Every structure is written in C-alpha cells, then in structure tokens.
From TrEMBL:
Pfam annotation, one family: LRR_8
Protein name listed in UniProt: Uncharacterized protein
Residues in LRRNT domain copies: 24-58
Signal peptide residues on this chain, from the entry's feature table: 1-24
Topology within the bilayer: Lipid-anchor
Keyword Repeat carried by entry: yes
Compartment list: Cell membrane; Cell projection; Membrane raft; Membrane
Similarity field: Belongs to the Nogo receptor family.
Main location: membrane
Listed SUPFAM superfamilies: L domain-like
Keyword line: Cell membrane, Cell projection, Glycoprotein, Leucine-rich repeat, Lipoprotein, Membrane, Receptor, Repeat, Signal
Species this protein is from: Periophthalmus magnuspinnatus
Keyword flag Membrane: yes
Length: 447
C-alpha cells in the first residue's frame, strides 16, 4: 500500500510539475536552466512576452519588432536584458523600475528611438552596462542617468547628439568607459564630464568638436585613453591636457591644427608628457603646414606672448623673455637659427623625443636625456633637425642675459651667455676693482 502511494505521487509529479515548467517558457521562445535563460530573439514579437518566468536571469529579446516599453512590460526580475535590433520608439518613465537587479541593458540599434524621458532608467541602481548605440538620439535629458551609481560602461556612439548638458554624467562616479564617437557634438563645456572621477577611456572621435573648455577634463584624473581624432579642433587649451595626468594613449590626428602661438600650451604639454600619441599635423600658418606640432622648436614660439602665471584663465601678457627679445633684435624672424651658438653641457634640458645621434659639442648631455616616448615608424621618417637647431635658444634662461634688445653692442654674441659660475664671480671682481681704484686715488691725493 505504501508503494502504491509513492507511485501515485511520482505519477502526479511527472504529469503536473514537469509539464508545468515546460509550459512556463513563453511561446516562440527557448528556455535554458542554470542560469535560467529565456531566448526569444528573431521571432517578430511586437511586445515583450507577458509570461517570462519571474526568476529568469537572462532574457534575450533582440531582433524583433517591439515598439514600446511600458512600466508594466517587465513582470520578471533579471540580470541581463537584450533589446537591441527592435523598432522601439518610446520608453515610458519607470519602464525598468521593477528590474532592481538588472546589470546589463542593451537598447542598441533601435533607429527610431530618438527621444528618451528623464526617468527612463529610474530604479536601475545596480546597472553596470548600458548600450544605446545607433539609436539616432538627438538629445539626452539632464536627469537621464540620475542615481545610476553602479554604471561602468556607457555606449552612446553613432547617434545624432549635438551637445551634452552640464552635469549629465555627474552621478556616474564608477563609470570607466564612455563611448561618444560618431555623433555631431560641437563643443565640450566646462562641466560636461564633472563627476567622472574613475573614467579610464573616453572616445570622442568622429564628431564635429571645435571648442574644448579649458576645464572640461578637470575631473578626469584617471583617464588613460583619449580619442579626439577626426574633429574640427584647431587648438586645445593648455590647462585641458594638464588635468589628465595619467593619459597614456592620445589620438589627435584628423584635426585642422593651428600651430601659431595658440598651439604653444599643447606643444609644451607634449614636451613634458610620456604618452603614446598620434601625429598632430599643422594646417596653419602656411609656413608650418604639414609639420608635426609635437616636433616644433622652441624658437618657433619665440615671439609668442608669455602666459600670465597669476591667471587661471590662461590669459597672456605682451612681455617677451629678455633672451627672446635680445635674439630677435639681432636676427630677423625669417633667418635660420642654425649655428647661432653652441650649448654647453650645463645648459641642455630634456626634450620630448630622443635626440639625434649627429656629432655636436653637447653630444654627451644630449644622449643622456631619456626619450619621452617611443617613436613610431611614421615619426621616425619625419625630417630631422640638426643638433644646433634642437638646442638653439633653448635653456640658459633670462638670468644670463647681459643686454636687452638694441642695447647690445654690435659684436655681442656668445659672450652674452655667461654660465652661472661666471655670473657669481662678477660682483666680487667689481668689488675688488672699486677698492683698488679708491686705494690708488687716496695714495695719489695724500702722497
């Protein structure tokens, strides 16, 4: 009798329970256990199935014809939700609010999704990856990413974004990857990236960026990869790049760089940075067209205004260094700088790339300077400058100048550039000479 009872319970389990699990899988979908996965891709579905098991950990609804996502569309709780390749045109505010443990949401390749409501992602505080590429988004609400504190990957490439509002990403304190390439962005404002203190890579290439505020990158202290190629940039403020101290890979090619005085801050930044960089080809002025900004000489900026050190705005004064003014009082700007004077080993400073191997009086000191970064084959093929041109008018700054502009005597040349040791002896020599003259005068007067 006991055996009959066990047999009856076994039959009931097979007939009722097991078919019940099969019936729980939505029609036209395939379900897999461990982890519970519901795959409904490419089934021409126009709405989200209503009978998806509540405990499904992964739900795949890509490549269907779903048009709307409403607050009651998701009666289940999942960690991964793929909705790419649909025809979604509208997402109701709070549509995902029931998905409290969602970690990955893919809404990419929905070309009709041109607008999002501010609360579209409300409640997704555990979301780590959000895909919205190729959706033809033109604008993003200022509170779209509000409280998405766990987000690490944000894909917004290949949309139609014209601008990014200040503080748009301010809650994304754990974001590490931000993809914004392939849009129509024209400018980067002061607070556009505020709050992104853990961002590792920022892709902004293939936009229309013409202007970058000098403080745009001030919170990006951990950034290692920055792509700005194929934009409309003519210059970058010096402060902008100084804020990204950990940068390792930088691409700035494909921009109409102006290499006049406005390029001096970026040129100086390159001299001090150890990074892997693309070429930075000048388009203006005409005499520098085709040259690489990174390899210009200090002499190329000799007539530029000196930045005002007391101004955070980076304003400049019209005061030139005394050495610069002295040099240009003796040489026309069009004249060659080659062989102006030879630098001794005490005045050589670090330059942003490996010095040439040609013989020069400063050879030992030059060769001891460490390379700032490894040169690529394209960089190595660039025209080389003679050692004199590398070091002409470089180092041995204003303290050593003994005359100014037209005050210099006609024969004044290398002797003007005293070493520091020579300068320290000048006051004592004058002092002794004065004492000698006084002693002789007293001797003559008083016998």
């Amino acid at each position: 009798k006991n055996i009959s009872g066990l047999t009856l319970w076994l039959i009931l389990w097979l007939v009722v329970v097991k078919p019940g699990r099969v019936a729980a899988c939505p029609r036209l979908c395939v379900c897999y256990p461990s982890p519970m996965t519901v795959s409904c891709q490419s089934q021409n579905l126009s709405v989200v199935p209503s009978d998806v098991p509540y405990d499904s950990q992964r739900v795949f609804l890509q490549n269907n014809r779903i048009t709307e996502l409403r607050a009651d569309s998701f009666g289940f709780e999942t960690q991964v939700l793929w909705l790419y390749g649909n025809n979604i045109t509208w997402i109701e505010a709070g549509a995902f609010s029931n998905l409290r443990v969602l970690e990955e949401l893919d809404l990419g390749d929905n070309p009709s999704l041109r607008h999002l409501e501010g609360g579209a992602f409300r409640g997704l505080e555990k979301l780590q990856s959000l895909h919205m590429h190729r959706c033809k988004l033109a604008t993003l609400p200022h509170d779209l990413f509000h409280k998405l504190y766990s987000l690490q990957f944000l894909y917004l490439q290949d949309n139609q974004l014209h601008f990014l509002q200040d503080d748009l990403f301010s809650d994304l304190v754990n974001l590490t990857h931000l993809f914004l390439h392939g849009n129509r962005i024209r400018a980067l404002s002061e607070n556009v990236f505020r709050g992104l203190v853990n961002l590792d890579r920022l892709l902004l290439h293939d936009n229309r960026i013409r202007q970058v505020h000098r403080k745009s990158f001030r919170d990006l202290g951990r950034l290692t990869i920055l792509y700005l190629f194929n934009n409309s940039l003519a210059e970058l403020p010096g402060q902008t790049m100084r804020d990204v101290q950990d940068i390792q890979f930088l691409r700035l090619n494909g921009n109409p760089w102006s290499c006049g005085c406005e390029a001096q801050p970026l040129w100086e930044w390159f001299r001090k940075s150890r990074i892997s960089s693309s070429e930075v080809v000048c388009t203006s002025p005409s005499q520098r067209r085709g040259q690489d900004l990174r390899f210009l000489r200090e002499l190329d900026f000799a007539l530029c205004p000196v930045p005002d050190p007391g101004s955070m705005a980076g304003t400049t004064t019209t005061t030139f260094s005394t050495k610069t003014r002295w040099w240009f009082s003796k040489n026309k700007p069009a004249s060659s700088s080659k062989s102006l004077y030879q630098k001794n080993s005490e005045t050589v400073k670090t330059f942003p790339f490996t010095a040439p191997k040609a013989q020069s009086p400063a050879k030992t000191a030059i060769e001891s300077v460490p390379a700032k970064y490894e040169m690529s084959e394209d960089e190595a093929a660039l025209p080389k400058l003679d050692p004199e041109e590398y070091w002409a008018n470089y180092g041995n700054e204003d303290a050593s100048i003994r005359c100014f502009e037209l005050e210099c005597p006609p024969g004044f040349d290398e002797s003007a550039f005293y070493s520091s040791s020579t300068l320290t002896r000048v006051p004592s020599f004058l002092h002794l000479l004065t004492l000698s003259v006084v002693a002789i005068s007293l001797h003559l007067v008083f016998g």
